[in-house]
Amino acid sequence: MTQRLITVVDRSERLLHLDVLRGFALFGILLVNFEWFVRPLQAIATGAEPGLAGADLVADVAVRVLAEGKFYPLFSMLFGAGFALMFERARARHAPFWGLYLRRLFLLMLFGLGHMLLVWAGDILLVYSLTGFVMVLFFRNTPTRRLWKWALAFIVLPVLLIGLMTAAFELARFDPALAEEIQADMMTDHERFLDGISEAAVIMREGSYLDNVAQRLRDMRFTLSHAFFWVPPILGFFLIGRWLIVTGRLTQPDQHRMYFRRWRSRGLLLGLPAAGLSVWLLHGAVMTMPSSSLVLGMALATAAGVMLSLAYLSMVILGADRLKFLAPAGQMALSNYLMQSLLWTWILYGHGLGMIGYFSRSAQVLGAIVFFAGQLLLSHWWMGRFRLGPAEWLWRSLTYWKLQPLSRD
Question: Alpha-carbon distance 271 to 265, whole Å?
């Protein structure tokens, strides 16, 4: 039984529509991430880049409405779905699972640490691995009927926290002296925060590679210090992905086409207006300065993220046969994800080609589209000759302590 587990998954066992979904999600992730290849990561708390107009403004609004906060949920659902699939297949074969899966998460954590410190601060692999440990520790035996309930609770948790912080600040206004003191402290912290963003921008443009590594270490502390805002919603989407597998929706989609048709229409009809209104409310809002418009905008953005990610998932599942050209990119999604940041940080940063000032907001979107088209061609070439992407091969080989077959010959 164990020997069967350590071989590469047969093509006949792959669910093609999940590979198509990964390829689609990979493109959306690149559209969103490109902005953070050219802006310091901490600027994510300050909203849109100021001064945008014309085509740049249109491109920015389009990405924020259609993509931002919609594709990391989709990738997170696929991560949870992958866990559920691996568990079900191991159980069916009476093969070992938990030790191997924990080793897989540990290796993903190492990938993430290396990626975050040595390449790009916006890494998501580290957060995924840490969240995966939380899921395995507390939710590995959660009954199917409770998965989506826990998921929704975790997804809305950050919004509730921001709401409580805002309510506490509003209550402080009844004591003018206290409110003035809190406001002054917040402004001081905000100005220090903006200074940090300016320093990070200079390092990106002009710093050496070691300067950027040191900056990424500071960025990592920023990311981990705000883990409460990242881990709960990602965990929630993990659980939704598991629910979609164990209920058969993603393993037997043809038997659930009505479910996907409903979510396609429901998600688009409700999600798009919510996303548009959230972008309008959050324009100019700063995460470090609580306000009622911030809370409402975050609540709408969260709702839009759930509805549109499920709508996109449903659209791709229903149209998977026509979108099969995306499957090779999805089959080597980890390799493609790492390639995106490796190449673009080298092209943009000062220790590489230093082209960070050459990409307007609209050029970023165009660059993402052209680059992903190139990744698609490369993925078709690679997967036509090899069983796994290079990063996937290394990850699997280390997980099983055995070199996996790579060539299709």
Answer: 10
Sequence-separated (6 or more) residues with CB below 8 Å from residue 328: 19, 23, 376, 379, 380, 382, 383, 384
DSSP string, 255-319: GGHHHHHHHHHHHHHHHHHHHHHHHHHHTT--TTS--HHHHHHHHHHHHHHHHHHHHHHHHHHHT
3-state secondary structure of 366: helix
Give the SS3 label for residue 408.
Answer: coil
| Chain CA centroid to CA 122, Å | 10
319-371 residue pLDDT tens: 999 999 999 999 999 999 999 999 999 999 999 999 998 999 999 999 999 99
Instruction: Supply 326's token pair.
Output: 């995306």
Give the separation between CA 23 and CA 12, rounded to whole angstroms: 19
Nearest CA among 10, 63, 22, 89 for reference residue 326: 22
**CA-closest candidate to residue 298, choices 45, 16, 72:** 45
Q: What are phi and psi of 407, to 5 degrees?
A: -70, 150
Q: Which amino acid is at 267?
A: G
pTM for this predicted structure: 0.92
> Degrees (nearest 5) of the Cα angle 225, 340, 123?
10
